[in-house]
C-alpha cells in the first residue's frame, strides 16, 4: 500500500526513543533485530508499518551505540561478529581436486612461482605494455617479423613464420590435453601405461582422437547406462523434461532397445511401459508422442515397436492402427507423416515396419510405394526423401529397410550404393551422413 505524504511527515516527527514491553534481541553482525512482542488486533496496514518503523529505529539506535570511525569519505560503525548462523541456499562447494603437478609439488614442498611480474611486458619499439600471451602476445612476435634468420639446418623452401605458428599451436594443444589428463586423473580416471600408438603426422586428427579416448573405461559400464535410462523419466520438475515432450515415445523406444541390448530388459516396468504407450493412442488409430499429442507416423512406429518388444500387440486395436496408416498413403505410392501432408521416404519405411509387425502389409499398395522409392534413387546409388532430393544416409537406411521388408532389394544398385556408403568414412574413422559433413554417431548408426 503506497504511503501518503502525511504518513511520511508523521514518521519524521516521531521520537527516536522507542519503548517495547519486551526488549528486542539484536544480531548487529547480520543487521537483524528480533521482536517477539505480540501485534495489537485487529492487524492493519498502519500497525504493520508502525511496528516496522519502530523496529528499524531501535536497530539504528543500537548501531549508533557501536564504536564510530569518521573518515574523509564518510562515518562508519564497526559491526561485531554475527551471532546467528544463517542457512546456506546451496551446499558448500567441493574442494577443487589437486592436479598431478600440484600433488607432486605438495609432496616435494615446491612453492608456486611468484606472479609479481604480472601478465604484461613493456614493448620497447611501440612504447606500450603488451600481454605476454594470448591476443597480441609477445610470444607471437617472431611470427610477425618481416625478416627471420634461418638456422643452418632449416629448410629454405619453408616459411619459418608458418613453422613457428604451427609449433605454437601444437604446444597449446598439448597443454590442453595435459590439462584434461590432469583433471581426469584427479577425478579417479585411470590411464593405460602405454597406448601402443605411434604419432602419425600425416593424420593428426586420427592421433588426436585416439589420445582423447585413451582414458575411457576398458569395460562397458552397464549399470551406469541402465541408471541413466531409468532416470530420464524422473526429472519432471525440470523445464527440459516438458520441452522434450514431443520426443517422449520415441525416446522410450530407444531406451527400451538399449536395455534389451544390455540384457537388462527388466530395467523399466513392463506394465508401466505398456500403459504409457496405450495412453498415447488417439481416436484416429495413430499414436502421438505423448498423451494429447497429434498422431504421427514416426510415433506410431515407435509405439508398435515397443509393444512388439513387450509382446503386447494384442492389447491395442490393430484394425484402427492399420486404418490410420492406410489413410496416409498418397496416390503416387508415398506416405504422409500425418494429416498435414509432409512427404518423406522415412514414412514409407514406418508404414512397412508397422504393418509387417502387425501382419497387415496387405492393407496398403506395396508395389506403388516401392515404385516411389525407385523414383527417389539418385545417380550415386543412394536415396533422397523424395524424387530429386539429395542422397542422405538416413534416407538410405529407411529406403533399403523398406525394400527389404517388401522383399524388393532388386531395386538397389548394390555396387554403386556400396561405393557411396564407403565414401562416408572420414580420416578420423568416423562416418558422416552425406558429403562435406562432419562425422557423427547418428551417421554411423545409419550406415551400420
TrEMBL record:
<keyword id="KW-0808">Transferase</keyword>
<comment type="similarity">
    <text>Belongs to the protein prenyltransferase subunit beta family.</text>
</comment>
<protein>
    <recommendedName>
        <fullName>Ribosome biogenesis regulatory protein</fullName>
    </recommendedName>
</protein>
<feature type="compositionally biased region" description="Basic and acidic residues">
    <location>
        <begin position="162"/>
        <end position="173"/>
    </location>
</feature>
<comment type="function">
    <text>Involved in ribosomal large subunit assembly.</text>
</comment>
<dbReference type="Pfam" id="PF00432">
    <property type="entry name" value="Prenyltrans"/>
</dbReference>
<keyword id="KW-0690">Ribosome biogenesis</keyword>
<dbReference type="GO" id="GO:0046872">
    <property type="term" value="F:metal ion binding"/>
</dbReference>
<dbReference type="InterPro" id="IPR045089">
    <property type="entry name" value="PGGT1B-like"/>
</dbReference>
<feature type="region of interest" description="Disordered">
    <location>
        <begin position="155"/>
        <end position="195"/>
    </location>
</feature>
<dbReference type="GO" id="GO:0042254">
    <property type="term" value="P:ribosome biogenesis"/>
</dbReference>
<dbReference type="InterPro" id="IPR008930">
    <property type="entry name" value="Terpenoid_cyclase/PrenylTrfase"/>
</dbReference>
<dbReference type="GO" id="GO:0004663">
    <property type="term" value="F:Rab geranylgeranyltransferase activity"/>
</dbReference>
<comment type="similarity">
    <text>Belongs to the RRS1 family.</text>
</comment>
<keyword id="KW-0637">Prenyltransferase</keyword>
<keyword id="KW-0539">Nucleus</keyword>
<dbReference type="Pfam" id="PF04939">
    <property type="entry name" value="RRS1"/>
</dbReference>
<feature type="domain" description="Prenyltransferase alpha-alpha toroid">
    <location>
        <begin position="220"/>
        <end position="441"/>
    </location>
</feature>
<dbReference type="GO" id="GO:0005968">
    <property type="term" value="C:Rab-protein geranylgeranyltransferase complex"/>
</dbReference>
<dbReference type="InterPro" id="IPR001330">
    <property type="entry name" value="Prenyltrans"/>
</dbReference>
<keyword id="KW-0479">Metal-binding</keyword>
<keyword id="KW-0677">Repeat</keyword>
<dbReference type="InterPro" id="IPR007023">
    <property type="entry name" value="Ribosom_reg"/>
</dbReference>
<dbReference type="InterPro" id="IPR026873">
    <property type="entry name" value="Ptb1"/>
</dbReference>
<dbReference type="GO" id="GO:0005634">
    <property type="term" value="C:nucleus"/>
</dbReference>
<keyword id="KW-0862">Zinc</keyword>
